[in-house]
Write a structure and sequence with these properties.
The structure holds two protein chains of two kinds. By secondary structure, chain A is mostly helical. Chain A has one domain. Chain A has twelve helices and no strands. In chain A, helix 4 packs antiparallel against helix 6. The longest helix of chain A is centred in the first third of the chain and has 29 residues. The two termini of chain A are 29 Å apart. In chain B, helix 3 crosses helix 4 and helix 4 runs antiparallel to helix 5. The longest helix of chain B has 21 residues. Chain B is built from 13 helices and 14 strands. Chain B is 38% helix and 26% strand. Chain B is of the alpha/beta class. Chain B folds into two domains: 221 residues, P-loop containing nucleotide triphosphate hydrolases (Rossmann fold, 3-Layer(aba) Sandwich), CATH 3.40.50.300; 72 residues, Alpha-Beta Plaits (2-Layer Sandwich), CATH 3.30.70. Classes of the chains: A mainly alpha, B alpha/beta. At the A-B interface, helix 1 and helix 5 of A face helix 2 and helix 3 of B.
Chain lengths: 238, 360
């Protein structure tokens, strides 16, 4: 209940300021650009598939997710509102999860706004909707993992900019590292591959749902949130 | 159930080497308005943050409405309404939106929440501001919104950190009246460095200095037991110089010290501290007449809260029995008393008591 109260307030507060609009607009513009203009993308493949779109999207999420999460705790710490929030009858994990859900919700809204792409593609050819939904699900999973990392970064500091850059750097590493496997020695390469978001997202972008990928993303969501929870709790002992 | 609403036992809070609170114990009874008084950095805010479970004490514990801040912090937080220093609010929200959030977070729903909101809004007089964004409000109104969120669930305990700081005198009086009226049914702990506020709105005062309680009494009792009265003499400027007048008045029997004070341009003012308790007015009048001074004013003043506060928190303290803590903290200016040693021993004991709790 408290979790939902917090999620609701946080979600509303996204739209009280410019943050949500800017992030949504940037994601949509970047998506459109990547979809239609990048060589080798949609028109070159000549197939009614969103696979290229899904493969490009993580690059926009790399920036969008840290932007959505940077203020979640950092801003409340800076303004002192966190003090009021945690002295209400609410558990620390409810605050973390509530705020996190608000960010995930906003990301879901952003994805919903890209639905015109599959609709257009569908009008051009025979679109496999099953693959599309799997792809969106994968995107939401990857986005949620990035948001959890952002949440963690936001719990470290009271400076939004620092939270953004920490989360952005981690996001960059996790998203990009999968493309850099050829540069690692062969033993390490498979480890690096297993850690890479793009590796686990790849099959979902093709429309294949694998438990391994699900487990991977769920743990990448869980651990940063657990750290954020500890970070929030640690203020009591400082 | 006893009528003790808040009980703090041997609270100590260290930030690294700095002791923000040092073995502080006190009780607040139901319906009492307690004022924390102390200079900035004395530990008032730290004590409040511990009571509201924002931070945990390094040693010691506290209970609020029967619940322990260590074992049942959720129950503690259900019993309190809290207004932190500087009134942090979600400034991008509308007042009504924010208060609805506060009510929901306190577990109020539906018609019950609506009624509670209406009452809090009426009590704080923010009815006209509900549709405004908090950012646009004046400081006074922000403060009221902060109070409204603290009041909305009619908590038995209100904890207000400097509720009147930064307000203009009119706003301060309004907020003070509000606190006095809500304090009739509830236990209120407020902190301030405004002494007049304490004298008007508090039933009891805790004076805190350097993390220790240096006085704990009603404002009236503090003033009454603060010891010696002072005499204030105003004479017309003229034949005699400042120094000559001081010497003249200093010779009067029973006068300990004469200190010039600021008065008008045509007058010389002096504050006279007597050695004993007797009334020196007659003797001072005689001395002035015999010395050829034109006396413009002569009065006796009891010590006010301000001078007591200054005395207790800067080291030039009047002698009082509750003062052992102050003395040990301010040992540089006064002789060590055996009782100060005793309080150190108490420190050591309390740290043993509290240690096991620290681990959970």
């Amino acid at each position: 209940m408290q979790t939902l109260n917090i999620a609701r307030r946080q979600f509303a507060s996204y739209f009280n300021g410019p943050a949500a609009y800017i992030v949504i607009a940037l994601v949509l513009i970047l998506t459109g650009f990547l979809f239609f203009y990048i060589p080798g993308a949609f028109f070159l493949t000549g197939r009614a598939s969103l696979r290229t779109l899904f493969q490009m999207m993580p690059f926009t999420l790399m920036f969008a997710c840290p932007a959505l999460t940077m203020g979640l705790l950092a801003e409340e710490k800076r303004n002192g509102t966190l003090e009021l929030l945690v002295t209400m009858p609410v558990r620390e994990w409810e605050i973390i999860v509530g705020k996190y859900l608000a960010a995930v919700g906003l990301l879901a809204v952003t994805f919903a706004l890209t639905l015109p792409y599959p609709l257009v593609v569908n009008s051009l050819g025979n679109l496999d909707w099953g693959a599309v939904w799997t792809g969106y699900f994968g995107l939401l999973l990857e986005g949620s993992a990035l948001l959890a990392i952002g949440m963690m970064a936001s719990s470290f500091t009271d400076n939004q900019l620092i939270a953004f850059f920490v989360a952005g750097t981690l996001a960059f590493v996790f998203v990009i590292v999968g493309y850099a496997t050829p540069f690692f020695p062969s033993g390490l390469a498979s480890v690096v591959e297993q850690m890479s978001f793009s590796f686990h997202f790849e099959s979902m972008a093709r429309g294949v749902l694998d438990t391994k990928d699900l487990v991977f993303f769920c743990s990448v969501i869980f651990f940063p949130l657990a750290i954020a929870f500890r970070g929030l709790e640690s203020r009591r002992w400082k | 159930m006893s009528d003790v609403m808040i009980e703090a036992r041997n609270l100590t809070k260290s930030y690294g080497a700095v002791r923000a609170l040092d073995d502080v114990s006190f009780q607040v009874r139901k319906g009492e308005v307690l004022g924390f008084l102390g200079p900035n950095g004395a530990g008032k805010t730290t004590a409040m943050k511990i009571l509201t479970c924002f931070i945990a004490p390094t040693e010691g514990t506290a209970t609020v409405n029967g619940a322990d801040v260590w074992d049942d912090s959720l129950a503690v937080r259900r019993s309190i309404g809290y207004l932190p220093e500087s009134t942090p609010l979600y400034t991008e929200m509308m007042v009504l939106e924010y208060l609805e959030f506060a009510a929901r977070m306190r577990g109020l729903k539906g018609p019950e929440a609506h009624k509670a909101l209406k009452r809090a809004v009426e009590e704080t007089g923010i009815g006209d501001m509900l549709a405004r964004t908090i950012r646009e409000l004046s400081k006074g109104y922000k403060q009221r919104v902060g109070l409204a969120q603290a009041l909305v669930h009619t908590p038995p305990v209100l904890i207000l950190d400097e509720p009147m700081s930064g307000l203009d005198p009119n706003q301060a009086i309004e907020i003070r009246d509000l606190i006095t009226s809500v304090g009739k049914e509830r236990t209120v702990v407020l902190s301030t460095h405004n002494l007049a506020e304490v004298q008007v709105s508090c039933d009891r005062v805790l004076i805190i200095s350097k993390g220790r309680i240096v006085a704990d009494d009603t404002p009236d009792a503090l003033v009454a037991t603060a010891g010696k009265a002072r005499f204030v003499v105003d004479v017309k400027k003229g034949s005699k110089t400042d120094g000559e007048v001081r010497e003249l008045l200093g010779k009067v029997k029973g006068v300990d010290r004469v200190r010039p004070i600021e008065v008008g341009r045509e007058e010389l003012g002096f504050e006279i501290v007597p050695t004993g308790d007797e009334d020196l007015r007659a003797a001072l009048f005689q001395a002035a007449v015999e010395g050829g001074l034109v006396l413009l004013g002569l009065r006796r003043e009891g010590q006010n809260l301000e001078s007591i506060f200054r005395g207790l928190t800067t080291g030039d303290a009047p002698s009082r029995k509750e003062q052992r803590a102050a003395d040990s903290a301010l040992a540089t200016t006064r002789e060590e008393r055996p009782s100060a040693k005793k309080s150190d021993a108490a420190d050591a004991e309390s740290s043993d008591d509290a240690d096991p709790k620290k681990e959970d």
